[in-house]
Specification:
four-stranded antiparallel β-sheet; three-stranded antiparallel β-sheet; 12% helix
């Protein structure tokens, strides 16, 4: 599996690089910039398997609530369920902000789907 993610915030959309050959344990150390206001409830992260010319396969999606960002200034490190057709199929994790700042990483790691 060669996964990548598409992150959507209302009408804004960003695509990660493809984690070629990383299977079910990819890690993306990428940063994306979105314009936000306090009425934006969540980020939607869709995970796909890149299949080159035959079309990409949808793996699952996770919704990341943004309320902690507006209330506390950051999204806490934690795991979020990845679902497909309303069934649990894994998780995506946000690593700690300290790690992200020290290493200049986006702080998101995907695993176990």
């Amino acid at each position: 599996m060669d996964p990548f993610v598409v992150i959507t915030c209302r009408t804004q959309e960003k695509k990660s690089s493809v984690a070629s050959g990383k299977g079910c344990d990819p890690e993306w150390n990428e940063s994306f910039l979105f314009g936000l206001s306090d009425d934006v409830p969540e980020l939607l992260i869709k995970i796909f398997d890149s299949d080159g010319t035959s079309g990409d396969d949808f793996v699952g999606e996770a919704k990341i609530p943004l309320e902690p960002l507006f209330a506390e200034g950051s999204i806490p490190p934690m795991s979020y369920n990845v679902v497909k057709d309303e069934e649990y199929c894994g998780e995506i994790r946000k690593e700690s902000d300290e790690f992200a700042e020290q290493e200049s990483y986006g702080g998101w790691k995907d695993s176990s789907y």
